[in-house]
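Following up on my earlier thread - several people asked me to post the actual chain instead of describing it. Fair enough. Here it is, all 432 residues.
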Amino acid sequence: MHIFTLLFLVALGGGLLLQLWLLQRHRRYVTAHRSKVPPAFAERISLEEHQKAADYTLARTRVGRFDLIYSSMLLLVLTLGGGLNAIHRLWQATDYGPIITGIGLVLSVFLLLGLLEMPFSLWRTFVLEARFGFNRTTPRRFLLDLLLQTLLMLALGTPLLWCILWLMQSAGNLWWLAAWAVWIGFMLLMTWIYPAVIAPLFNNFTPLEEGELKQRIQQLLDRCGFTSKGIFVMDGSRRSGHGNAYFTGFGKQKRIVFYDTLMESLETTEMEAVLAHELGHFKHHHVIKQLLLTALTTLVGMALLGWLLDQPWFYQALGVQRQSDALGVQRQSDALALLLFLLVTPVFTQFLQPLLALLSRRYEFEADAFARRQTGAEPMIRALVKLYRENASTLTPDPLYSTFHDSHPPASERVSHLQSGQQPPTKEALTV
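Reply from S.P.:
Thanks for posting it. Predicted structure:
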């Protein structure tokens, strides 16, 4: 057995066992605290609501456990089981040329994976979410969304793949640097056009009506020096009962978006606090920092792929046979190398999750602190409690599971941080 095959199996198996162990810890912890609301929330959340959140969490972990095992088995079948090798040979037989067959290979594998993962998506939507009263989508809308997502993947992914595969074939030894620049440009373009072009394909966005809420929001935006393309309400209730708020885009395309479900449950001051939290991400440059981190990690990844591209063991160790030309010389398939890299890299990078989650939680604390300075602690605390209650988010996650997975701090920690600095917003606090 090749050493890299062994490393791959150890990382895949070790990661799977780690994830299953963390899920089991999480299940035990949530079950153990199901019978009592945490003291910090006893006056804000009923026992029935707390138990609904616990049951929802336990139901999701049951599905997640099977999904983890299933996904790991699929990856083994595709790699060491010869699946990718077989699909690659089928595309090679078409003799459409390396770029066209490469695009077909990558897209067909991802379409196949999406199809094979469909049972879990259907179960989550029409069984799990429906059981807890969150699902509001219909089979017809589900299928239309799926079709639209597939068409977008083909429309956007095909030219991007063509460009990257062409660079891999024609741009010399530093193709990976050019491909990285193309990817970064594509990512920035998608971030810019998403609010105005892509998001409206799935949802309706209605400008926020005139009134107290819009007036308070505009005053908050003016204090923070934030300009946007507008404040919109999204019809999230068409598909789900979950609520949220976010701002998206950059430059002149920035938009503030509230789910209609969120507006149904929060008061004006609480909505203002939620927006202040989102603006905290903007004022602390979290979006830019995340983009820079993504750019750096993508650069490292592209450089690594540039080296692996010409390493025969990379293919052989993952169950793929390199093709021979008419002279019998073995040559790599650029698309196959790219596909292998995309599928296998998460097996190794999954162990970095705690570091990424730690960074994300730090950003959330900073955004909470910004919201506290703008609106005071109490409106933000009330909004958080309602969001956790309405979304049936558990108040008692297992600490180790949360450290590994959660991008947001546990509710108890967020409330504690808000209360520790609670004070009425002063004129100085309102100046950013």
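Residues 103 and 159 are 9 Å apart (CA to CA). That should answer part of your original question.
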